[in-house]
Amino acid sequence: MRVNGLIGMAVAAAMGAGLFLPFLAWQDQALSLADLAGSAAGPNYLLGLLAVLVAGVLACSLTDDLPGLFPIGGLYLIFPAYALSEAGEVLGEGAPAAGGWLLAFAAEPAAIGAAVAFLAAYAAVVLGVADWWFGRARRRRAR
User: Which of 48, 61, 69, 134 lies at a 20 to 30 A Cα distance from 54?
Assistant: First the structure.
């Protein structure tokens, strides 16, 4: 296994941890992505989808198929934005508008899960693109 595969496994662990760390802090509440996924009205399969994405990152890392991390990381970035838009419904009256959430959770020390989730997703995207780019260069030199 290459070093990139080990980095990919660390990214998968960070993505998994980011699901359960406090993502959003508002007054006395600290909500994780798992809490936000489970509290929306109606059937919500987003937590299962995120678990599949984390498993996909782990599978790509174990098989050294790191260019596959690019689309998985991109999909993983979509859910926190969706969770922030639904957070006003979960937190109730007096919650800031969805557009103000980026500033609201970025400065909050209790919201470490947000930083972990976004950094892990960005690392997956960068690792996937870098492995694809340098792999392409290696194949070109081999010809």
Answer: 134
Q: Sign of the CA dihedral 77, 85, 39, 107?
A: positive
Structure tokens at 104: 């609201």
Q: Please count the residues of the chain.
A: 143
Closest-CA residue to 107 (of 28, 35, 26, 14): 26
Q: What are the pLDDT digits (tens) for 30-81?
A: 778 777 777 666 666 777 888 888 898 888 888 878 888 888 888 888 876 6
Residue type, 60: C
Angle at 39 between CA 33 and CA 44, to 5 degrees: 85
Contact 77, 125 (CB under 8 A): yes
* SS3 call for 2: coil
Tell me the pTM: 0.76
Q: Which residues contact 10 (CB under 8 A, 6 or more apart)?
A: none
Scan for tokens 């489970």, then name that residue: 38
